[in-house]
Design a protein that fits this description.
There is one protein chain. The chain is an alpha/beta fold. The chain contains nine helices and 15 strands. It has helices at 41-47, 116-136, 152-163, 175-183, 197-204, 219-227, 252-256, 271-286, 303-311, and strands at residues 2-6, 15-19, 29-39, 66-74, 86-90, 99-103, 108-109, 143-146, 167-172, 188-191, 210-215, 229-237, 259-261, 294-299, 318-322. Helix 2 packs across helix 3 (152-163) and helix 2 packs across helix 8 (271-286).
Length: 325
């Protein structure tokens, strides 16, 4: 079967097409015919040989931690009636392939009426966004600042905040992404390539700052966002795409009464919790209450192009690889 492998650490060109033996389901496992593979930012970092947390794989390896597809075979101890089920799932051994091996207990059913592309976009992003949102306890009428608001997680946080009755400032870079943010219903959209973007946020919020900040960028942008967090607010960190993870100076959060939810909160999203949140995200999308933004879809063989686009920050929403059969 066809696979894409990272042959060595480096740029997108290290992703090379190849062949691999067909996976065989062992006890408690299933084989999934892959429809779509979500490409997440951390995979581009791992490909480069650096990691924000997960252990570095050893090249050559097949990237892709999760897939959306159809169960085509089951191993010992797995109900044969699962064959034919549409699912999203984490995988064993990499998902950038025509078929992938997955633990049977990791499968999340895809509701009728929801496309596999949308489901793939929600596998990681939906679970993360809904988990973060619950932890931040957003209340109606509050101002919520979402960084990388046109991205996979950010676009879902914007929608969740609006649905909860909050007022939303979406921060992104460039006109194309700001247009996406406005289309999601944000009350204001600011470009954080503008030097005074944080002051724009303060002005929009009447001078008080944002009651809740979702920081998926880190670096200088994360530090600036922490500076415009309102007294008594919550600052939630979930990524560091733009530099080191944001950290509060000793005593600063306490002095301002800001609850700081650091990157370590993601460690609380264990497999069972993530699976539950993913299932809820899929249900919300099937009911029309949540819309994943699928910004670009590349064929499996163009995985290098997908990585290059993400390296260049030239993507909106979730990037997917499509596996044709």
């Amino acid at each position: 079967m066809r696979v894409m492998r990272v042959t060595a650490f480096g740029g997108p060109e290290v992703l090379v097409a190849g062949e691999a033996p067909e996976p065989v389901a062992g006890p408690g496992q299933v084989v999934v015919e892959v429809g779509f593979v979500p490409v997440v930012f951390v995979e581009t970092q791992l490909r480069q040989g650096r990691s924000p947390g997960p252990p570095l794989p050893t090249p050559p390896y097949v990237p892709g931690g999760g897939v959306a597809g159809t169960v085509v075979a089951v191993g010992e101890g797995v109900d044969p009636e699962r064959i034919g089920a549409r699912v999203v799932t984490r995988v064993l051994g990499g998902g950038c392939a025509q078929r992938a091996l997955a633990p049977a207990d990791a499968l999340v059913p895809v509701p009728d009426g929801l496309g596999l592309d949308a489901a793939a976009a929600l596998l990681n992003d939906g679970a993360t966004a809904l988990g973060l949102f619950a932890a931040a306890r957003v209340r109606p009428g509050e101002w919520v600042l979402v960084e990388a608001a046109a991205g996979g997680v950010g676009s879902l946080l914007v929608q969740a905040a609006r649905a909860a009755g909050a007022r939303v400032v979406g921060a992104a870079r460039g006109g194309r992404k700001l247009e996406v943010v406005r289309g999601l219903g944000a009350d204001a959209a600011v470009d954080y390539s503008d030097p005074d973007w944080a002051e724009q946020v303060r002005a929009v919020t009447g001078g008080a700052g944002a009651d809740v900040v979702f920081d998926g960028v880190g670096g200088e942008i994360g530090r600036a966002a922490f500076g415009v967090t309102a007294r008594g607010g919550r600052f939630s960190v979930h990524g560091a795409a733009g530099g080191p993870p944001t950290e509060a100076a000793p005593g600063e959060a306490e002095r301002r009464g800001v609850e700081f939810l650091g990157l370590e909160q993601l460690q609380g999203f264990d497999e069972e919790t993530s699976r539950r949140w993913a299932g809820r995200a899929l249900a919300e999308a099937a009911a029309g209450r949540l819309r994943p933004v699928v910004g670009q879809v590349f064929p499996l063989e163009r995985a290098a192009d997908a990585h290059a686009a993400m390296d260049d920050r030239d993507t909106v929403g979730r990037t997917l690889l499509s596996v044709s059969h």
